[in-house]
From TrEMBL, chain A:
Membrane-traversing stretches: 28-49, 91-113, 125-149, 155-173, 211-229, 258-279
One Pfam family, short name: BPD_transp_1
Organism: Glycomyces algeriensis
ATP-binding in keyword set: no
GO molecular function, one term: ABC-type maltose transporter activity
Membrane topology per record: Multi-pass membrane protein
Entry protein name: Sugar ABC transporter permease
GO BP annotations listed: maltodextrin transmembrane transport
From TrEMBL, chain B:
Annotated InterPro entries: MetI-like (IPR000515), MetI-like_sf (IPR035906)
Region described as Disordered: spans on this chain: 1-29
SUPFAM superfamilies, A to Z: MalF N-terminal region-like, MetI-like
PROSITE patterns per record: ABC_TM1
Name recorded for this polypeptide: Maltose/maltodextrin transport system permease protein
One GO molecular-function entry: ABC-type maltose transporter activity
Its job: Part of the ABC transporter complex MalEFGK involved in maltose/maltodextrin import. Probably responsible for the translocation of the substrate across the membrane.
Subcellular location: Cell membrane
Organism: Glycomyces algeriensis
ABC transmembrane type-1 domain ranges (all copies): 240-465
Lineage of source species: Bacteria, Bacillati, Actinomycetota, Actinomycetes, Glycomycetales
Length: 294, 475
């Protein structure tokens, strides 16, 4: 560019100037778009957080920036409503779901990836088909069965159904991940006389950690947000989960208590949001792995 | 078993003639032990002088009979009926076929205990599945008996019982390790799925609720209702079209917006890309149920801030009833799509962002040297590479949106009402309609038909998707 200085400085200067101006304009437009999107993204969230600190009660008084901010709604939420109970219920289901899902899917996925046995292909095909069957379709059949056998309204039952619903997909993820782990380590350990379960626990499990984390996070957070299964399987007020309770709070025609709902929404969303933001890299790669494996 | 087997094969016996003269009739055709095993499991193995295997198969046979007799009522000296005397299998199958014959009745002594059709159906299904499993063992025993004899007759020396079971045991580890997951799946997924399919052929709905009434088989009547009764067909067709339109637009808009933002954030002109990115990821990180309920409040017709704001700035004269105004269903649909865009774009933004970071700079440099402009670079380098990686996820996203219960149900609950529809509103998707049919209207049979229809549609898309990926080939 500076090979022949001085010959056409004026012309080049004007071109560069125009270029810089165009760059500046593009950049300004881009930042403007980003800013607009950011406002659209943030406003509803600020609005609900603000409402949760608002002194009002009704939806009409909800504002993003309340004048007399107070914690009353949160106090009310945990003392006057069943919210604390619901929170513990969700925590219970989420914990069982996480432990059960990780343990079962890791074991099954590893068996499918590493052991050749009769019926392996048939069962993997079965798993693929089951995985296509949307879980709420199963849920409706489970509901009809539980209804007639008097098994409704059990949190443990809900957790078991949740584990089973996600098991085919999770197994598939674990199998795909284990397939890509080098088998030479297993073989070396087998030569040293290690049993199959020892190889699984000592060698394969530690290597599977990224996928274990992914399944653990998704199966821990899912019950907090799941609506259909608990709505079908749970009935009494003290057996509800947070998602059910929140939905009832907002659809209840006679309650005019929007700010309490807002507090409940924030209390549910905050931990999960933080978890997701912190672990986003894990979650996005995990989702990619799942899609590539079908 | 061990004692018997040692007599069966005393020491390694190389001197024994392969045909085994004197052990069993050498000229016996293979069909004979096969037939024997078909009648009494294990009898054929006994004819083959394989006591170990004979005991193994006979255990299943005896177990089945003992179970049936112990759970039944076979000793009382009255006339035998499957309903009163049958055991686990006989009564189970009777229940599955008839769905009960004795309705609950009012008598002098009070309400009699009638048959509960659904319980009978479920028990029958379990009995049927158990029988199917036993049938596998039965066929196995027949084939084994005939096969062993054929080997003997052909002059080979087949495996002993012990070697056979040892080999079986070594490969059993996989089954044992899989069994906890398998049991859970059979009872919580497979059984319900089969049960749901069966319900589609019954009249189980709010008019026939057990234990008060009996349910009966109706063949394909429910399919006929859905596809031949005009009001149902109209509802189904209308909702199906909207569901497809919704799924296509929802997927395309979220993907396009996510891609656009990802490309912008990858540009060197943008300052603080990580800050922007974190902000834009919020809708993905906040639980969808919370966001959807918040939007529902914001778009509340009577008190919501959006309506109020539109009135305040003078854009509308009166409040807009976004989700409850039956005269403007497309308004509700449009808002639902916008809310879905808000919820869905960050996921694609994060995905595309990850792919963009991995495209080597040299591609772009080469393109620049060849004189490609920014748009051409985008069109011929960025888009194809991103497309290739993200396509499976776009298809998954389409399926997800097709079944996007959350956004519609939490936001509009299917509203505004549509008088032409059966139990559905204008924004209802197939799944929310199914949910309402089942839970609110207790039309379980129609709901079951709907489940099957959705499964066929979703399954077809998934199969297409699977064919593209390596998953199937790896099976």
């Amino acid at each position: 560019m500076s090979a022949i200085p001085g010959t056409n400085r004026t012309r080049r200067g004007s071109v560069e100037g125009r270029q810089r101006m165009r760059d500046g304009a593009t950049s300004a437009v881009m930042h403007l778009i980003l800013a607009v999107v950011a406002v659209i993204v943030i406003y509803p969230l600020v609005w609900v957080v603000g409402s949760s600190f608002g002194p009002g009660g009704g939806l009409a008084n909800a504002t993003p920036i309340p004048e007399n901010a107070t914690f009353d709604n949160y106090v009310h939420l945990f003392t006057q409503t069943n919210y604390g109970r619901w929170y513990l219920n969700s925590l219970y289901v989420a914990t069982i779901n996480m432990v059960g899902s990780v343990a079962l899917s890791a074991l099954c996925g590893w068996v499918f990836a590493r052991i050749r046995f009769r019926g392996r292909k048939a069962s993997m095909l079965g798993i693929l088909i089951l995985q296509m069957f949307p879980s709420f379709l199963t849920a409706i059949a489970v509901y009809m069965l539980f209804l007639n056998f008097g098994l409704l309204d059990s949190l443990t039952g809900l957790a078991l159904v949740s584990i089973a619903a996600a098991l085919p997909y999770n197994t598939w993820l674990m199998k795909g991940y284990t397939d890509n782990l080098p088998a030479s380590l297993d073989e070396a350990a087998a030569l040293d006389g290690a049993g199959r379960l020892t190889i699984f626990r000592k060698i394969v499990l530690p290597l599977m950690r990224p996928m274990l984390t992914f399944v653990a996070i998704t199966s821990f957070t899912a019950p907090w947000m799941d609506f259909i299964l608990p709505r079908l399987l749970l009935q009494s007020s003290d057996k509800q989960t947070v998602a059910l309770g929140l939905f009832q709070m907002i659809t209840d025609q006679y309650s005019n208590d929007f700010t309490t709902f807002a507090a409940g929404a924030v209390a549910l969303a905050l931990p999960i949001t933080i978890l997701y933001i912190v672990l986003q890299r894990h979650l996005v790669t995990g989702a990619m792995a799942g899609a590539e494996k079908g | 078993m061990t004692a018997i087997e040692t007599t069966e094969h005393p020491a390694p016996a190389p001197d024994r003639a392969p045909r085994g003269p004197g052990r069993a009739g050498p000229g016996m055709p293979p069909a004979a032990p096969g037939l024997a095993s078909a009648l009494v499991w294990g009898a054929g193995q006994l004819l083959n002088r394989q006591a170990g295997k004979a005991a193994f198969f006979f255990t299943f046979f005896a177990g089945m009979l003992v179970w049936e007799i112990a759970t039944g009522n076979y000793y009382v000296g009255m006339e035998f009926t499957a309903r009163l005397n049958g055991g686990f299998f006989v009564r189970g199958l009777w229940g599955l076929i008839t769905l009960g014959t004795q309705p609950r009745e009012m008598t002098m002594t009070g309400l009699t205990e009638g048959d509960n059709s659904i319980v009978l159906m479920a028990n029958g299904l379990i009995a049927f599945l158990t029988l199917a499993l036993l049938a596998v063992i039965w066929i196995w025993s027949i084939r084994d008996a005939a096969g062993y004899r054929a080997e003997l007759n052909a002059g080979r020396r087949p495996e002993t019982s012990r070697a056979y079971f040892k080999r079986l045991w070594e490969s059993a580890f996989a089954y044992i390790a899989l069994s906890p997951g398998l049991v859970l799946l059979v009872f919580m997924s497979v059984l319900p799925v089969l049960f749901g399919i069966l319900v589609a052929f019954t009249n189980y709905n709010r008019d026939n609720l057990p234990p008060k009434n009996l349910v009966s088989w109706v063949g394909t009547d429910n399919f006929a209702t859905l596809f031949a009764v005009p009001s149902w067909t109209e509802t189904f067709a209308g909702i199906l079209v909207w569901t497809v339109v919704w799924a296509v637009i929802a997927t395309v808009t979220t993907y396009a917006a996510g891609m656009l933002l990802a490309v912008m954030l990858a540009s060197r002109r943008v300052k603080f890309p990580r800050v922007w990115r974190s902000v834009f990821l919020l809708p993905w990180a906040v639980p969808a149920i919370v966001s959807a309920l918040v939007f529902r409040s914001m778009f509340n017709g009577q008190f919501g801030p959006v309506s109020q704001w539109l009135v305040d700035i003078g854009l509308t004269d009166e409040r807009v009833y976004w989700f409850t105004d039956p005269t403007s269903p497309n308004l509700a649909r449009g808002v639902a799509l916008l809310v879905n865009l808000w919820l869905g774009f960050p996921f694609f933004m994060a995905l595309v962002g990850g792919v963009l970071a991995n495209i080597p700079d040299s591609y772009y440099e080469a393109a620049r040297i060849d004189g490609a402009g920014a748009f051409q670079q985008f069109r011929y380098i960025t888009v194809p590479i991103v497309q290739r990686t993200v396509t499976p996820l776009i298809i998954l996203s389409f399926v997800h949106n097709f079944n996007n219960f959350g956004v519609i149900y939490f936001l509009t609950e299917g509203g505004p009402d549509n008088v032409d529809y059966r139990f559905a509103g204008s924004t209802d998707l197939l799944v929310t309609w199914l949910f309402k049919l089942t839970l609110d209207n207790r039309l379980y049979n129609i709901g079951a038909v709907m489940s099957l229809v959705i499964f066929v549609i979703v399954g077809a898309i998934s199969v297409l998707n699977l064919n593209r990926t390596k998953a199937i080939r790896e099976l």
